[in-house]
Design brief:
By secondary structure, the protein is mostly helical. Helices cover 41% and strands 10% of the residues. The chain contains 7 helices and 3 strands, in the order E-H-H-H-E-H-E-H-H-H.
Length: 147
């Protein structure tokens, strides 16, 4: 019922082209590689563009992004937040792309945002059944997500 995005790319194709560049592919071949990948997987890059998807979202969203992020430019996260109706953008400074995930203030803000939309009482249940990896288990085991 609520979404939190941390340092999201506006378009995932940018990460794919970044990977191609790291692997030494010439820039002139990037578009061909993108097209080939999309054809092989069976999707269009436009369908996974977060700015486009965001315009149709109707759930509360918190987006946290560091202004000094060198992996995903801050402007991309800000564009997603502007496109998502009612989104809240929280900007940090000095955390970059990875340290933002471990920052106590960021974690506290995310938890508070989720709690604000949680039912008054969350019943104990299967989420606790898997110990420290329970969230991972619930994300990747479909039957647990709907239990």
């Amino acid at each position: 019922s609520r979404v939190i995005l941390i340092s999201p790319p506006a378009a995932p194709s940018r990460f794919y082209t970044g990977l191609l560049g790291m692997l030494g592919f010439p820039e002139t071949e990037f578009q061909s590689a993108l097209d080939t990948f999309a054809a092989r997987i069976g999707f269009a890059w436009e369908r996974v563009d977060l700015k486009t998807l965001a315009t149709r979202m109707r759930v509360p969203m918190l987006l946290i992004h560091d202004r000094e992020d060198r992996e995903t430019p801050y402007a991309e996260g800000a564009a997603v937040a502007r496109a998502w109706p009612g989104a809240e953008l929280v900007s940090t400074e000095g955390l970059g792309h990875r340290r933002i995930l471990k920052d106590e203030a960021v974690v506290a803000k995310a938890v508070a945002f989720l709690r604000a939309g949680a039912p008054a009482e969350v019943p104990a249940g299967r989420l606790q059944d898997f110990g420290p990896r329970s969230l991972e288990q619930h994300l990747f085991q479909r039957d647990l997500r709907f239990a």
